[in-house]
Amino acid sequence: MSALFSVRDLRLSFPDRAHKPLFGPAPRNEVLKGFSLDIPEGRITGIVGESGSGKSTFGRVLVRLLEPDSGQVLFDGQEIGHLDEAALRPLRRDLQMIFQDPMSSLNPRHRVWRIISQPMKRYGRGGTKADAIAALEKVGLPPTFAERYPHELSGGQRQRVGIARAIALEPRFILADEIVSGLDVSSQAQVLSLLKTLARDMGLTVAFISHDLSVIRHLCDHVIVLNHGEIVDHGPVVEVFEAPKSEITKTLLSAIPLPELDDDWFDEA
Amino acid sequence: MSSLHAHTLDVIKLNIALPNGHRLLRNVSLTLEPGEVRALVGESGAGKSMIGKSVLGILPPNVAITEGEILLEGQHLNMMTPPTRRKIVAQSAALIPQDPLTALNPVRKIGPQIIDPLVRIQGWNAREAETRALDLLDRVHIRDPKRVMQSYPHELSGGMRQRVLIAAAFAPSPRLIVADEPTTALDVTVQKQILRLIRELQQETGTAVLFVTHDMGVVAKISQKVTVLFAGKVMEDAPTREVFTNPQHPYTRALIAATPSYADLERPFSPVPASLIADLHAQIAQDDLLYRGGRI
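Predict the joint structure of the above. Result:
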């Protein structure tokens, strides 16, 4: 199994404006503290951690919405970490993203078919209404949804439109950043099983960011646990869950309220 | 405001509706005893938040109670004049909202936001109220209560803001707290801390809690009783223990199955089956016909 992404000694910091002195530059806050890892091709990799662990920042480096301070990001053998926008353009179609909040990532003034077809046109992958309807079908939405606006859809349906927009471009990599956190359990289950099926059928590589390990366990093949910008645990999902190496992983595991009775749950860390 | 009445809250055959007659709650009844946590669980649109809002009198302007009664410590809320009702509710009930950022005034410091209601509504003097606020902030494990009182909401993290609101809710020693998805916006480790905190304070003070959530996992941990709702109708009302050992209604079973667990790794994700949802909607349509028939 080959790696689609190889990340080496990745570092990224943001200026800490809250502590900026009156004169001179603001001190920098290290968000990613120099880690290395591979993301295997054709698999779903989960990235977990608490808020502030750097998981979203890391994801944004992978799709090159952010440029790292130093270190390498190899995408299919090609160094993309420090490419400029023009050099990235041919790669953009391959690196797609599904966002946490579909209400702010889908244009409220456009009908669903236009939301899906615009990027298709942009990258020369068709972009007729029929193409958009075909993409909707893949995510289990009937053709009538093409004429609707985002506000006319439920949360789960909106998230499916987000998935349709990403897969319509036939990318090689999809970053899914907390895409089910806003949904209730039943829509959550629908969106996750859809993503799992699509990834398998299309041979997609997916990075799935979440703070919920119970979701990761069912969806992902591999998992990376981040804490304060460092990797504290990683490996195949089964191994990390059966034998977590780090206290952080154990805490995350025990924090999830499972749908079963457990009188001692509050007494655990 | 003491009463010999045994229940903290009785909701009896409550119906609320939009102006066009569409019902959002359908004959909902439930009781809450002192010191008890009752979970209201259901998917989005099930009306679970509407129950809490009806009790607190904060329904959206276009939604009205069309039938039914609400008794808070034995007092009929919907027979009171609005000012009396507001006074009674403010004195014995409080809300922990879902989104602490919109619930707090962004341009006022935390301190006055906790203290003012204690002075204006509970009639405490300013010094008493300040001592109480500091004490409660300490109880919710805020390290430097004095500094937090001087802070603005944006200076605190999401978990800290939710702690502040929990402190504010418990400060006047209410008999009832409506917790409306108080942990949905938080990540799992902070969620556990917040749930633990609500439980600690609630057990210590004997406050009854109406806990609105869509997460069967949270239900299992925090509540003693459960009301399962679908489209504004009660599907099941039972002790939490029974709901998880022997769920009676197929919808309850479906909700539990839809919640991810560690038990069976190979088990696929299982949304609530569309056929079950269609059946339930058909039943509800029939209920609505009968209900209208009865009213005419």
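Chain B is about 45% helix and 20% strand.
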